[in-house]
Amino acid sequence: MQRTIAFRKARIDDIALVHKWMNEDHVHPFWQLNFPFERFEKHYRKALLDTHQTLYLGMIDGEVMSYWEAYWVQGDVLENAYSPKAYDQGIHLLIGEKDYLGSGFALPLLRAMVRFQFQHEATTKVVAEPDIRNDKMIHIFERCGFAPIAPIRLPDKEAQLMFCERETFEKRWNDEYKKADL
């Protein structure tokens, strides 16, 4: 992909944009955060202050087009779904801008974020739990290197628990980068 991928931490002044995305038809069935603005604002402010996660906006060539939640599994509801290690991380994402849907951006963005999460030396696993109905995202996670583990029940959804092990990820993508250099 001959585009520039970047992430920046989400801020309170991003709330209107993130709220707009949460109300998009391709987002709200899976995120279920299509609340009235006042209710969403409380949720978003709380999420920004939550020390077990960091919110990001993803950009392509400087244009903000996606929303990300990178989190520590310990301290999250997901920690009850398996036996996490201390530094396991998880990821949630959405492509908010419709112009970027179906254009092949989800995989490079996900790969960049997972690579970023693995920069934490003690992290050996990144976890995802997409809605079990979201076949497109499950496919993208698999292409990135996540393996389906089991369907799980979370308070807000039926999910597909998926693991991406550092070794698998690095082997897959380091080999890809080597091929690209040839």
TrEMBL record:
Pfam families referenced in this protein's UniProt entry, alphabetically: Acetyltransf_8
One BP annotation, GO: response to antibiotic
Domain of life: Bacteria
UniProt pathway: Siderophore biosynthesis
UniProt keywords, alphabetically: Antibiotic resistance, Transferase
Domain N-acetyltransferase: 5-167
GO function term, MF aspect, one: N-acyltransferase activity
PANTHER family reported in the protein's UniProt record: LYSINE N-ACYLTRANSFERASE C17G9.06C-RELATED
Role, per record: Acyltransferase required for the direct transfer of medium- to long-chain fatty acyl moieties from a carrier protein (MbtL) on to the epsilon-amino group of lysine residue in the mycobactin core.
Protein name (Swiss-Prot/TrEMBL): Lysine N-acyltransferase MbtK
